[in-house]
């Protein structure tokens, strides 16, 4: 069906006048009449009939008019939805996030984002940093937020936060609240995160920089919070983000070890696929994180 002709017919039907429809559309009367006749010929029916000095709709014209109203209402709704998407007011954002930003940074970022863009669906996948990069490159997430330095050629990384890492031990431990050499704390059995995690790679890099052997693996875990709970229960030492353990240190649930000549600062990066433009909703999320 010729939708242009249908739109002109609906205007004629609304005004019950070819003359007024032509004025409203900015067309000539012959042009309006020609389009209506074209639609009638296409459908094989008569849509308009004379009525005094004006016109009226035939029965089939009335029926077609009802469907046309619904059709063009959907068209207007579709146009509005597209405009919402273009402004980032609708759509979805899939975020891959490593553990530190997932627990301490992302909640406030997402809350701020949802206040401004309540109709955007947000989906989160929490994993270690390496797996977040894999998710990003496999197009399973739109943006990644990870801690630590990582070289991934196909990913653009923007530093958005800086986080301190602390060594912790159980409360009552001889090193709790004390200063110690790095070699001394490394003698303790350590709670390690899984391979690919920022905390694990940060610790191993620190050992290499100081030409010291890595500590003995007392226990390997897939989550930082599980490791903190183990230290609270009295086992091992651990290198953890200060954001995750500050309250435990301040309350005395665990002890912090102040390692001489070591001040670990780990950046948090916002990551997108290199060379690709992001959707408007993702762009809005990036702006919220930057602020």
Automatic annotation (TrEMBL):
PROSITE patterns reported in the protein's UniProt record: HTH_LYSR
Residues passing through the membrane, by range: none
Pfam families for the chain: HTH_1 (PF00126), LysR_substrate (PF03466)
Family from the record: Belongs to the LysR transcriptional regulatory family.
Gene3D superfamilies per UniProt: Periplasmic binding protein-like II, Winged helix-like DNA-binding domain superfamily/Winged helix DNA-binding domain
Signal peptide start and end residues: none
Name used for this protein in its record: LysR family transcriptional regulator
Species of the source: Tumebacillus lipolyticus
HTH lysR-type domain mapped to chain residues: 1-58
This protein's UniProt keywords: DNA-binding, Transcription, Transcription regulation
Domain of life: Bacteria
UniProt xrefs under InterPro entries: LysR_HTH_N, LysR_subst-bd, WH-like_DNA-bd_sf, WH_DNA-bd_sf
């Amino acid at each position: 069906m010729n939708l242009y002709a249908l739109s002109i017919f609906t205007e004629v039907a609304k005004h019950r006048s070819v003359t007024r429809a032509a004025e409203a559309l900015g067309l000539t009367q012959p042009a309006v009449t020609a389009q209506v006749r074209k639609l009638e010929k296409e459908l094989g029916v008569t849509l308009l009939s004379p009525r005094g000095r004006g016109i009226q709709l035939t029965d089939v014209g009335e029926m077609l008019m009802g469907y046309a109203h619904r059709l063009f209402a959907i068209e207007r709704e579709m146009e509005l939805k597209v405009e919402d998407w273009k402004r980032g007011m609708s759509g979805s954002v899939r975020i891959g996030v490593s553990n530190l930003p997932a627990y301490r940074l992302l909640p406030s970022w997402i809350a701020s984002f949802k206040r401004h863009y309540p109709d955007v669906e947000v989906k989160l996948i929490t994993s270690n940093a390496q797996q977040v990069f894999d998710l990003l490159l496999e197009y399973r997430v739109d943006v990644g937020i990870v801690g630590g330095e990582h070289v991934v050629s196909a990913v653009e990384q923007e530093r958005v936060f800086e986080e301190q890492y602390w060594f912790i031990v159980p409360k009552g431990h001889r090193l709790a609240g004390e200063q110690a050499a790095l070699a001394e704390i490394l003698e303790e059995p350590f709670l390690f995160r899984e391979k690919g995690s920022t905390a694990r790679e940060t610790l191993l890099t620190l050992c290499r920089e100081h030409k010291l052997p890595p500590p003995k693996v007392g226990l390997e875990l897939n989550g930082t919070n599980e490791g903190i709970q183990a230290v609270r229960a009295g086992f091992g030492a651990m290198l953890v983000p200060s954001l995750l353990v500050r309250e435990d240190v301040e309350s005395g649930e665990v002890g912090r070890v102040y390692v001489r000549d070591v001040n670990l600062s780990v950046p948090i990066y916002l990551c997108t696929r290199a060379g690709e433009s992001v959707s408007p909703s993702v762009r809005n999320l990036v702006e919220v994180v930057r602020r």
